[in-house]
Amino acid sequence: xxxxxxxxxxxxxxxxxxxxxxxxxxxxxxxxxxxxxxxxxxxxxxxxxxxxxxxxxxxxxxxxxxxxxxxxxxxxxxxxxxxxxxxxxxxxxxxxxxxxxxxxxxxxxxxxxxxxxxxxxxxxxxxxxxxxxxxxxxxxxxxxxxxxxxxxxxxxxxxxxxxxxxxxxxxxxxxxxxxxxxxxxxxxxxxxxxxxxxxxxxxxxxxxxxxxxxxxxxxxxxxxxxxxxxxxxxxxxxxxxxxxxxxxxxxxxxxxxxxxxxxxxxxxxxxxxxxxxxxxxxxxxxxxxxxxxxxxxxxxxxxxxxxxxxxxxxxxxxxxxxxxxxxxxxxxxxxxxxxxxxxxxxxxxxxxxxxxxxxxxxxxxxx
Length: 367
Ligand code: THG
Fold this sequence. Notes:
- Keywords: Methyltransferase, Transferase.
- It is an enzyme of class 2 (transferase).
- This is Dimethylsulfonioproprionate demethylase DmdA.
- Its EC number is 2.1.1.269.
- By secondary structure, this protein is of the alpha+beta class.
- It folds into 3 domains: about 15-60 and about 145-240, Gyrase A, domain 2 (2-Layer Sandwich), CATH 3.30.1360; about 65-130, Aminomethyltransferase beta-barrel domains (Alpha-Beta Plaits, 2-Layer Sandwich), CATH 3.30.70; about 285-365, Aminomethyltransferase beta-barrel domains (Elongation Factor Tu (Ef-tu), domain 3, Beta Barrel), CATH 2.40.30.
- It has 8 helices and 21 strands.
- It has a 6-stranded mixed sheet, with helices on both faces.
- Strand 1 and strand 2 form a beta hairpin.
- The longest helix is centred in the middle third of the chain and has 11 residues, at about 125-135.
- The chain is globular, with a radius of gyration of 21 Å.
- The two termini are about 30 Å apart.
- The chain binds (6S)-5,6,7,8-tetrahydrofolate.
- (6S)-5,6,7,8-tetrahydrofolate (THG) binds near residues 193, 195, 202 and 243.
- (6S)-5,6,7,8-tetrahydrofolate binds near residues 93, 108, 194, 202 and 243.
């Protein structure tokens, strides 16, 4: 493939200079910002992630800040997840939907205070939607994108590394909670979360000036732990069933189709835009849903468009994420499958760019 021409429209992150020194080999663009995708190779990065610790520049997961007396009210308007019992100090994975119940984003919402949230967004312009709702409803909330840059520390040795910088208390942070820690006199929120199933933390670094000192300190402290620069790994995330907005689902899908129906409490989520639309699908149930799929044969190419999923000559869905898994010795995949064909064990075929392949619907994701 051709190279990506750099320009102001494609934002660098405050970590990009270090990412490049670390030997990044490929980037994608996410929220109009650079996101590394490969360092050594996708497979080498994967094996290392599963046994050591990596530092990921995920600053492209921008924060949409809601601040003001109506912040929690606005947050609840954006999502069908019931947020009434969410206390400050918690992170929540929330589907964000439009007036038709279509998915606009699937961020992690960070509740800083009753009147202050950070929405850690996937790849869509949620800032514009939030500003539009805020202004249209005359809410008393300031909506903006603060200078917060997310750095993830992922892998089985993440705790050991984090303790060296932030002290033993970091080990006490529970899954999807965050606490305030200090680095070089600067306060930063650190959550137990991240886009991998290997465990780890996410550091919400405020102020671009602290980014490189933080990066350098992690590498300095983690030398004997074999700390390396990494990034969300395609193999590991498909094995773990982590969804990718824009790939596995778009605004054409409801949360129920994405398997996120369990996060929706459409009755309780008063004020949620799209509540009426979702009450209908919640009652009837979805007619298609995300499924883990196994593709037979040799390694398939990466999926950069929806591949038709066929039962004979009938189209029954699509495959949207694929890769060869070294640990499981099969092609792991994620797709959207019509209800007539979504039972585990169902045998289908997929039209890859290199021809037809046999597919089996799986019971569960691999990891
Ligand atoms: N961390 C933060 N922000 C993010 C991501 C992240 N923004 C963009 C993108 N990733 C959003 N998508 C996801 C998808 C899955 C998860 C987090 C963000 C995730 N899922 C857990 C799982 O499926 O095992 C648990 C979720 C739950 O509590 O139910 O972690 O990675 N800050």
